[in-house]
Amino acid sequence: MKLSKSIKRKLASVIATGIVMTAMVGCTPTKETSLEELVITHVTSPLNVPSIIQKNNNIFEEEFSANGKNIAIKYAEITSGADQTQALASGDVDILYAVGGTSIVSAAANGADIKILNMYSRSPEAFCMYSLDKNIKSAEDLKGKTIAGPVGTNLHQLLVAYLEKAGITIDDVNYVNMSISDAKAALDGKSADVALLAGPTAYKAKQQGYNLVANGQGLTDAVIAVAVREDFYNEHKEELKTFMKAEAKIIEYIEENYDKTMDIVSKELDLDKSAVEEMYKQYDFNIETTEEDHKAFQNVADFMLKTKMIEKEVNTDELFIK
Fold this sequence. Notes:
The protein folds into two domains: 5-123 and 222-319, D-Maltodextrin-Binding Protein, domain 2; 125-215, D-Maltodextrin-Binding Protein, domain 2. Helices cover 43% and strands 16% of the residues. Helix 3 crosses helix 11 (237-256), helix 4 packs across helix 11 (237-256) and helix 6 (101-109) crosses helix 14. It starts with a helix and ends in a 16-residue tail after the last helix. It is globular, with a radius of gyration of 20 Å. It has helices at 5-10, 12-16, 49-57, 59-66, 81-90, 101-109, 154-164, 180-188, 199-207, 230-235, 237-256, 258-269, 273-280, 291-306, and strands at residues 37-41, 72-76, 96-100, 115-122, 127-131, 146-149, 174-177, 194-198, 211-215, 223-228.
């Protein structure tokens, strides 16, 4: 899959520097080299509070400067998980700051050099299924219904897990692949019986009084992580230590400046502050990797293999940088 022209333009300055992928998984660690610029993905949706606060306050730049590292921070606004992992593999991007578990597993299954540096968020309750029909209350009620939502995502995993609890498969429904915003539009226009929604779109459906069929609690862990190439990690360990220190300061800022954080995020996403506050409760932004996170990633890989989204098993423990 090729990057779109718009993404190519955004990354033109990066390409010009000649950043390329120089090692594959399993190669011996290379000597650390100096780094003049760092290209990080910047994604604000559905409710990526750390990303919004970081860029608003230039926390990465300040932390590198405070540690005596004159590194230019550049941003790549790539929302597609597939495009993100391709940009990482090609060397156009150095750090995926908020990439979904399904995207990481898919890249790994296809032989890409991708490693999990630490966690970004977990938010199972933020992923939901909504309908207009209040009579849809169980998985059995979904038989034959048209369900709209993005394939290969936490929402797809939510749907499959929900159906499985009732002994139903994806073949028992009419599952239509489309983006979250398009799924919401399809539900509004009654061309879909159920929409798979997350973040602000799910919140809006709730405010409109739509019927919540289920959320991801107990069905998907909705893990989002920070990822790098192994060769980049081996060459720039010191810079990545500084990066992770900055990550910790972002979370610290959020915790110590809650009201200001909510103001900044509501302005960035053009949402009422009360909406941001309600949605924020559904997210865990702890960057530390836990045993539960390891299990969650393996669940993602097993789900993707079972649904034939990947063709071979992936041991996700091997994806975490030790």
